[in-house]
Structures are given as C-alpha cells and as structure tokens.
Amino acid sequence: MDLTTTLLAASKADKNAEAQLHQWTEQNYAQIAPALALELASEDKPEQARTSAGLFLKNTLYGKSVKTQQIYHARWKSLSAETRKSIKDSLMLALRSNLPSIAHFGAIAASEVAAVELPYREWPELLPTLTANLEAAPHIQQAAFECLGYSLERMGELEETVPGWPELQTDLVDKMLTTIVNGVSPSKPEPIRIRALTALRNSLVFVKKNMQVAEERNFIMRAALMEATRSPDVSIRKLAYESLDQVAELYYEHLQDYMSNIFELSTQAIRTDPDESVKIAAIEFWSTVATVEMSIIDEQALGSSSLACQYYTKSALPNLVPLILETLSQQDEHIEEDEIDLHSTGALCLQTISQTVEDIIIPSVMPFVNQNISSDNWRLRDAAIVAFSCILDGPDTQAVAQYVSQSIPVLLQSFEDPNETVRQSAIFCLSTICKLHAIAIQPAQVHGILECLLKKLAESPKVASQACSAIYNIARSLRDETDQDTNLMSQPMMTLLQSLFQVCDRSDASEHNLRATSLEAAAEVISSAARDVHIILVQVLPNVIDRVEAALKMPSLSKEENDEKFQLLSNWCILYQALLRQLPKEAVLPHADRCMATLLQILQMDNSISHDEAFMAIGSLVDNVEGDFAKYLDYTIPLLIKGISKFEETNSCKTAIGTLVDISVNCGGNLVRFGDQLVSVLFECLKDSSADRSLKPVVISCLGDLAMALQGAYEPYMQVTAMLLMQAAQQQAPADDEDLLLFINELRLAVLEAYMGILIAFEDGNKLHLYMQLLQNIFGFLQYLATPASCADEQVVIKAVTLLGDIARLLGSNDSVKASLKSPFVMQLLTQCADVSTSTWTNEQVSAAVQS
Asked: In angstroms, rounded to a whole number, what is the distance separating the alpha carbons of residues 215 and 406?
C-alpha cells in the first residue's frame, strides 16, 4: 500500500492504515516525515490524503505526556539539517496552497515544527514567509495567523511543562507581535481578525517586556482588545474578554489605566450582550481579577507580595454583584454535569468575590437571599440558596453565624421543595455550612439534619449524591471528637452506615458518582466514631471484607465495567483504611488474613485505579497489626517493588513508597532479606532522569526509614547512598525562583532525614564507626545551610540542628567531630533555629561533647 492510499484509508479511521503509518514512523522517521510533508504540499494529490498527511505529521511531533514529547522532539532533532529543511520548505508551500483546507493543515503542522525550532533560533525563514503571506488571498492570510497562534500556544505549553525548555527571546516575540497586529484592526475581514486575535491571546504569556512600554501596552489593551469588545462578531467579542482575562492574570499591575473602561465594557456585556458565551467570558474576567487580588492580599499578610492590591473587586461590588446575582436565576435544566453555563459561571464568580472581600460581601447578597428564598418562582428560590452557598467561603464564621442559624430550618424545609434543582441546592448549601461553619450549628440540630439527609438518600442519584456529601461534611466536622467516649455521631452510627451501604447497592449508583460518594461518606462516618461505637465497627469490618470479596468476583466484560469495578474496589479500600485506623489490634487480627488476601488480589490485577488505595490500606493494616504483618512480607514486597518501579506514575510511586515506610517502621529486621531489592529500586528512581523531581525527596527520606529497619545490614549500601545524598545536598536554587526553592528545601529536609535515619540505624546496629565516612559531607552541608545564600527554610534549619545534636550525642567524643562542633556555623545554626526546645537540647549536646 503506497502512502497516498494509506493516508486516504487513515482519514476514514481505518485501523490497519493508521497502524501502518505508525509503523513507518517508528521504523524510518527520516523517510516518512519528509514524505508526509511533500504529500501535504503536492497539488496533484487528493485533498483528503493531503489533509491526513498534515495531521499525521503534526502528531509525530505532538506528545501527550512530557516524556513522549521529549522523545518526539529528540527524534525530530536527530534528522539531518537537509531533511528538516525539505520538510519546512514543503510546509511553507502548503501554507500558500490554493485550497483553504491545505493551508489550514499546513498551519497546524508548521506550528508544531515552529514550536520545536523557534525557541532555539532555528527556522528564521518562517516569520518573513508568514508576513509575506499577509498580502496573499484571504484564506492564506488566515492560515498565516493560524500558524502564529498555534505556534505561540504550543510554545507556551512546552515552556510550562517541559523541564529546561528555553524561554522565547524578546526580539522574536517582537517580530511575531508585529506580524499579529496587522490583523487585529477592525478594518480587517472578521475571519482574519478572529485568527489574529487568537494569536494575540496566545502571545500574551510572552509579552512581559512589551507590556512595560506604555505605547505598546496601549495598543494591545485599547486598539486591539478593548476595541474588539465592541465588535458585532460574537467570536471576536468573546476572544477580547478571554484575552483581557489573561491580561488580568499575567499583568495585573498594568491594569490601572484601563480598569475604568474595562469595568464599563464588561458590566455592559454581562447586562446586555445577546450571546451567553460573551457574558460568560466577561464574568470570568472578574473571577480572575478577584483571584489575583485574593492572592495579593494573602501574600501581603505574609509580607511577601511584590504587587500592590488595587481593590478593584471591592470597588466593583455595588454594581457588579447585582449583575452576578441575576445570572443565578438563569439555570439550564438540561445542561450536562461538567458543562459551563451562565449560572455556574456566575456562581463561581460570586464565590471568588466572596473569598476576596470576605465579610463585606454579606450586605451585598443577603437582601437578595431574603427577598427570593420564598419566591413562587423556583428559579428565584434556587438562586437565593445558591447565592447564600457562594458567600459561605468568604466571611468569618462569627460574621455569618446568625445567617447560618436562621438558614437551617429554611434549608431543611427546602429539602421537600417540589423542584429537584432547589432540593439539590438546599442540600449542597447545608453541606457547605457543615464543611465551613459547623461550629455555628447548634448540637441539638445535628440529629435533625441527619434524619432529613437520610430521607434524601432514597431520591434521584443527583440529590442522593449531594446528601452523601452533606453527611460526609457533618462527620468530618466531628473528627476532633473521636478521642471521646461518645459524640454526636454515636447514636445514628449504625443507621448511617446501613443506609450508606444500601445506597452503594442501588442499581443506579453509578450515576452522578453516587456509589463513590456514599462510600466516602461511610468512611468519614467511621473516622468520626467515638469509643462507644467501636463495637459496631468490629461488626462492620467482616461485612466490608465480604463486600470486597464479592466485588473481586464481579464479571467485567467491557472497559467501562472494568473501570467501574476497580473504582468500587478503590472505594472499599478507603473504608478499610478508616476501619483499620479506628479499631484496636485485637479486633483486627482475627480478620487480617482475609483483609490482606483481598488487598493482594487487587494489587495483582492489571489496573492502577485501585492500587493506590490498596497500598494505603496495607499501610493502615501494617500500622494496626505492627510486627504481626511480617508473615505477609513475602507476598507484599514484590508487589510493592512493582509499584515503586512505576516512576512515570508519580502519585502511585509515592503511595507505594509511603507503604514501604510504614512497613519499615513496623517490621524492622524482617526486611533484611529484601534489602538488595528495595534499595535497588529506590536508587533506580533517584537516577532516572525522566522521573518527576517531586519523587526525589520522598525516595531519599524513605532511605532513612529503610536504613533504620535494616540497622547494621544497611552497610553494603552506604557508598552509593553517600554519593546520592551528597549530590542532592549540593542542589541550589536562585532566591527569586520560589517554586524551585521550595523543592530544594524539601530535598534538603529529606537529605537531613536520611542522614538521621542512617545514624540511628548504625547506633542500633553497633556500627557507628561507619558513619564517620559521612561526616565530611554532612558538616559541609550544614555549614552551607547556615549561610544566608542557602535560603534554608525554618523546617530545614530545625532538622539540621536536630541532626547536629544527634551527632554530638553519639559521636562527640571523636576529636575530629569535636573540632567541627567548635566551628562558627554551629552557633549560627543554633541562633537561626526557631524551635527553642530543639536548639536548647542541641546546644546542651554540643557543649557536653566539646567539653568532654
């Protein structure tokens, strides 16, 4: 089958043709890539084959994951300069095709190549070509702007996600911006203007320097974006507000000169624009402004904000909030759960405004609530309840307490509203109250609330799911009362658990996430249990094991059934965790074998959905039965190593490592025979360059826990451990890179924990002399941490001081150690330590060692 025939077949979703294209790509990329580009550019080829070639060429460069993206880019860069030039020449021909579809797909493919090459100052011919194309036919102009827009979008994504991706140079940004501004004028045809504005929106992340220049900033803000809000074209108006939204997020400090006009334009759009999507975009602008101001206010409270808050949100309240409240009564009864409409956008905006302005939102909203809560119109009743829900996450409990107290009888009455949307909103509102302001609920009201919620469990999946969430939040609010003889959950405990398990068994429990929500609520109810209901939980544990065993036997023929089965198993594992944390060891041991058998069976299945929760359940079992877990190690460790080996699945890997820590703490010397395998997989994770960097602190800290378990048997791994810890300790970050600095301090904390774990291991294993080989690196590390240049945070300093104390206590009699303890950095660290008890104890250990 030749390329043209294969592409035609692939365009019709022929699986064999698609597989053939992938095979050619894997076997000889240097041949297929230029062939695809030539196919796209060849005017004598069928149009469908050409568009298919452009799309497939683009997909050879677009990776859905960072790792795949890096592989694809490396493959592209491995092509010879001549081959790459021939591909790019073909793409530039396609961009000028007489067929609009070919020019379009040429833009898509060219943008993917541009995203790889432009940041490295390659393909200098592209921008002059695109600029020249702006003098060609309208569809060619559109393709030029599409290419710019897609390129900028992809470069922004790559810069954000791919480690080490170079920033786009400012001179290149200037050239692209110069090309883009040619198309944003109101005099341009709307299709061209839409694509130029899209490119402008995608360029905003790169125009920091341009926004600092008043003339250039004024053009972007006034001539391009604010002018575009007045366009008769819906797409252009929507693009304008989306772009202003991005400006608010990226360049808040430059908004002051324009906010008066933007306020008038945006509120007018919310009030009168005939298109809902434009209204949504205008509201989202204010959500972003409120979010940015919330962050600034929070940072100012910590003394770390570099921006001054202009309080645009607070100033806009009197005029903006009434408009937002109007949107709450514009519910779409037929909208899908994840779809965005005017109602949900307004609700989110009101919630964000409330979080930003806090107590002062109350007088702006409560009159609307009081006026409409008893309306004959269900839309207004629902809007009143939603409005009250939205402002609960802003004001202090003391400020909102009287309204909460007054609302509960009204909300319980609304549970019986003839309209399901109102019932659902009332339950959600009460759930939010329980989550945020439980202290404002009178204890005498709790049982009445629970009784009403239990009745709602029999209603539609949507309403029942909200009722489960409310029960979850009530139970969570009582977590602090679990170490008591009794609490408010004791009396209804059995009824609640039975009812929630019955919900799980409903035939429609897969709708609206009802099954998962019911089991999460049951787990939280168990977690809130006081001592007087432990006898009930003892009966629940074997029942849960029965249910897990039954779930394991469920047939699952389709992928959907399979996913549903594993999600169910995952939820039951959450219940395992709750029960194992609550019950005493003697109550768990009789059921431990059956419980562990189900967990091992889950982990042996080829599906990671439930693996994380199964590992955490094993961790809870380990913590409960302690050393008695040792009999399961031969079955558990191979599965644990397999879980840790999934470096590409960061969260799963972390969870498996967390379970290893639990086992290390509780099973100690029983792990010695597994030492080689466990240390090896942890070392591999640290050395794997593709593993997410957040794994490194977790792995390094785990080495310390594993060392404490192995004690003297950790000796064979010392040389490699010393090298890895030294490399980690040498990592540094510039003071102005907050994210990297946060990671570096997490890494330092883990390194110190590992050093402490190894010290304790060798103390317990009577091999303290082996620790001496680490001291040069350790003291060098501690000396650096004592300097301002290190930017060590409070927790790092406390841990460093603790390690110093342990070294002084255990090795202080050694002359070289004494000499190091007399160094100035020791006193510097002690002075910087924020924990007085730790610094005092360490000072005593150091003094005793030095004077001995």
From this structure: 55
